[in-house]
Give the backbone structure.
Amino acid sequence: MISGCGSPLLDHIITGMTSPAFERLPSYSLRGRIAETLREAILNGTLEEGQRLVERSLAAQLGASLTAVREALIELEMEGFIQKRRNASTYVTKLTLEDAEKIFAVRSALEAYAVEQAALVAGPEHIERLEARYLEMQEAARANDRKAFLRKDYAWHEMIWQITGNEYLQAALRRLLVPLFAFTAIRIVTRGVFDLLHDAQTHLPILDALKARNPEASRNALLTGLTEWNAHARAYVFRQNDQQAETSSTQPRAAGAFQAPFASDPGK
């Protein structure tokens, strides 16, 4: 009776009330597509480390709204690929060796405590999930899928933090390590010298100590792993000094070479 009243407005309201909630998904999909485009541009070097990102310029080049671009940038910031600085400008993440050394110093204290606590409270179901994640890490390593490997690596560590049940510890470690893992991805995704399988295997002593519910062994295994991971970071992530990187970045492109989109616009 009501739907037959011929009122377009009422019909629109009724349609809206009966439409499924997931109709709004396209706007989120747009944000995701923008984030994926920018993420790939960062990983393949089209967007360079430390490059300033201007929202208006990105929106114009991508043919998207400022809102969608801002949402995508928030997603990338949460993943560690971009950083907001004090002047509110946005830049592609760039870490120095000194930055990494500071991160590893704090990490050795916080994550060592986390594995100790995890060893005390981990149940069979926790160990089972950690073993499954470890196997996923190994599979990504054997496939030489660097992006997948780093995601699995981070997820494995994050699962240990979650086992502690200490949300403040988890938040501190996420804030500390998300940029480091993202910057590592930026540096090694396109490089073929990183031994992923060996890196995966360095996690096994930690897993074994957690399975034994031995806090001291877990701590020692983690610290041993950190020593090796720090050495890997020095060798593979920071093997070029800043001067070499700057010299390389200032060299002119060859004639006809691809010109990077998403260039920053200092005037905006």
